[in-house]
Amino acid sequence: MNFLQHNNLWLRQVDSALCERVNRTAVNQSFKVTPARSGTPTLRIGSIQIHSAYDPVREAESMAEKSTEKLSANDVIVIFGLGLGYLTEEVRKRFDGKIILIEPDLSVVKLAMNERSMGFLSSMTLVLGQSLQETVNAIERECGSATDFTRVKIIQHPPSIKLNPEYFEELKRTVNARRNTNVTGLGILVVTPIYGGSLPVARYCASAFEKLGHRVETLDNEIYNDARQQIDQISGNRDHRNQLTGLLNTLMAESITARALDRAVDLVFLTAQSPMTPDVAQELKRHKIPTAFWFVEDWQLFTYWQQWAPLYDYFFTIQKDAFPAALSRIGVNKTMYLPMAADPQVHQPVTLKPEEISEFGSDVSHIGAGYFNRQAVFSGLSDLDFKLWGNGWEDTTSIRKVLQREGDRITVEDSVKIFNASRININLHSSEFHRGVNPDGDFINPRTFEIAACGGFQLTDQRSLLPELFEVGKEITTFKHESELRYLIEHYLQHPEERRSIAANARRRVLMEHTYEMRMAEALNYIYSYETTPASRRHPDHIDNLLEEAENDAELTELLSRFSGTGVVTVDDIAVDIQSRRGEISDPETIFLLMHEFRNWAKEKELF
């Protein structure tokens, strides 16, 4: 009986369908099996040496020894790549728990069954020649649930990875993402811009991270807005103004490093226009603190991404296709499409007072800056009960007639009132290159989600990405040109029930799929499909490390357990918690309060 016949006996008992699939598979003629110097068979595929040409067994023993030394009985081992099975066999000798073997190429499996006795595989879960999704499903079944991927430990056979690098890279990312889905207590530093539309977006992101259970630090740079405005009054010389602006940006960027290190954060998250410098980005990399940037702007209009995108570890976009391709050309590959969203605690239906309805209400409204295409369209709507809100509008008779508050910027709070009070909210996306609707418009602005979350009805210009996010006609109504916009305004003013039905559907869709909490969860899943250990987990004052150190002290463990899942814990944190409680103080609590007092005294004396 040859090896293949022997292997068929046990494989047919384990999985008869798999056995038939393997037997129908032809061995690739480029696979070369030769005796190693030790006498055992070794394998070469093309230019890749799959096993040692000297001693494949000894090589596998060394790899298995390193891979299994920190395993626990509850772990689920996932082995990437079979080759001739040497590594898998040695892992099985050292670990008797659950093992899942992944090999996407059945011709490799067929060759291994021809060359060696593979009976040791019969005690494993075999995922051979399967698609990526089928492989993930198999791992999920072995873990017992979709959320228990924390048990998974990956052991890679590096030469096998080279045969199918994209498959194994995507699989590894997917497993890591599932493994980190429920990671809580991350320290996240959110860096806001000084001003502009992405300032509230950054704050929504910070709030979302907190709702997801993370420890959030917000570096709110709006405090520097007055200084930014004063720079223009200090000097009429452009070079001097640019120098001062650069110094202000450096100050804000250096504050990122200072706060990130002081609070031992795991991630620095920035939005469009948030300050950064190459030096600060490199310093964060040196401390192994990943950075993520959400570019919530039109890449074709705002081209500063060409200079700044390479600084960040992760880059999120609100546009697809051409933009990621352009990023890839400059070496930025960890990118992900992440559309805008709404914050239901901010953007929601509100009951307005009569005076608010009078101020903010109208048949038709629009909130936004005076971009070229909007100037052209809204000049032609001045005969309607139309209120135009925002800044940057030209001082023309038709615009002056409908412009509110003399063109001041509108606060988030007032925007919500306008969305609620308007019968029809016009949402015309910005363009500097068209007189009306941009025929190639793709990105979806935040207003789309915010109006919907408020329960407001909107008419939106056609966007190529919109049908992925809302059902056009049922959840949102679109227009192609100015004449169609006017027709739709007249139609929906006459059909209030139809307006209310579409608005209710849109709000329902946003609450189900388009909140900042959901977006930030997606972003973290993507980031932690690459990141394995959060940076703060390496910090000695991380709660997990403190609890491990205190495991032999019951009172101290009880005290520290109050902070489980909160990340890095300081003496101040513990003192505040103790002071907020009533009852008798334990010995560990007394010691921490004394440490807190001593620390404050030392600060006053400037001893550190």
Note the topology.
Layout: H1 3-14, H2 16-24, E1 31-35, E2 41-45, E3 48-49, H3 56-68, E4 76-80, H4 86-94, E5 98-103, H5 106-115, E6 125-128, H6 132-143, E7 152-156, H7 158-163, H8 165-180, E8 187-191, H9 198-211, E9 215-219, H10 225-234, H11 238-262, E10 267-271, H12 278-286, E11 291-295, H13 305-308, E12 314-317, H14 322-329, E13 335-337, H15 354-360, E14 362-367, H16 372-378, E15 386-389, H17 397-402, H18 412-421, E16 422-427, H19 446-453, E17 458-461, E18 477-479, H20 482-494, H21 496-513, H22 516-527, H23 543-549, H24 554-560, H25 571-579, H26 587-604
Helix pairs in contact: 1-2, 1-5, 3-4, 8-22, 9-22, 10-11, 19-21, 25-26
Descriptive overview:
This protein is an alpha/beta fold. It folds into four domains: 3-180, Protein-Tyrosine Phosphatase, Chain A; 187-337, Rossmann fold; 354-514, Rossmann fold (3-Layer(aba) Sandwich); 540-604, no CATH class. Helix content is 46%, strand content 13%. It is built from 26 helices and 18 strands. It has a six-stranded parallel β-sheet, sandwiched between helices. It has a five-stranded parallel β-sheet with strand order 15-14-16-17-18, with helices on both faces. Helix 9 links the parallel strand 8 and strand 9 (215-219). Helix 3 (56-68) packs across helix 4. The chain is globular, with a radius of gyration of 30 Å.
